[in-house]
Amino acid sequence: MFVARIALLFIICIWVRLTSQETVKVTLYYEALCPYCHEFIQDQLYPGYETLGDSLQLDLVPYGAAKHKKVHGKWKFSCQHGPKECYANKLHACVLNKNYTQAESMNFIGCLMKTANPEKDSNAKKCAYKKELSWETIKRCANGEEGDELFAHYGDVTDSLYPSLEYVPHILFNDKDNQTLEDSARDNFVKTVCAIFTDRPSGC
Fold this sequence. Notes:
This protein is α+β, with helices and mostly antiparallel strands. Helices cover 54% and strands 14% of the residues. The radius of gyration is 19 Å and the shape is globular.
C-alpha cells in the first residue's frame, strides 16, 4: 500500500511538471518581403522553434511599415515593398488565424520564408501541400475580405505598439521591449531565449 502511494505521488509530480511547463512568449513584428526579416526567420526563429517547440509561445505580426485605411467600405493597403508584400503578408495572416496548430503555422511560414519569392502562389502552394495544409483555404482567405480584415487587424496591433515601431524585424520577449535581448537574438536566438527560462527545456 505504501509503495503504491509513493508511485502515485511520483506520477502526479511528473504530470504537474509536464502540464505546467514554462513558456517564453516571443512577439515578432515583421514584413514578408523584408530581407532582414527573411534572414531572422530563416536563420534564427524557425530553427529555434524546431529546437524548442511549444516551449515558445510565438506571436507573429505580419505588417511592419504598411498603412491601411477604409475607402468606401473597403480596406486599402500600402506596403513598404509594394502590393506583392501586402499579399504575402495576408498569406501569413491567414495561416496564423486559421484553425492550425502553432507547429503547422510555423512550418508553413518557415517553408515560405526560405523561398526567394514568398509572395508567389506557386511557392505558397508547394509549402501548403508539403506541410499538409489546405492551399485553397489559405488562398481564398488571402484574396478575400477575410484576408483584408486580418491584415488590417495586424495593422491596428502594430499601430498600438508603444514605443512605436521603428524597424523590422522587431522582437519582444514576454511582451517587453529589451534592446539588449533583441540584439542578442538576432545573432543567436536559441541562446538568448534559453537564458530567459527559469526551468530550461531540453532543447536548451
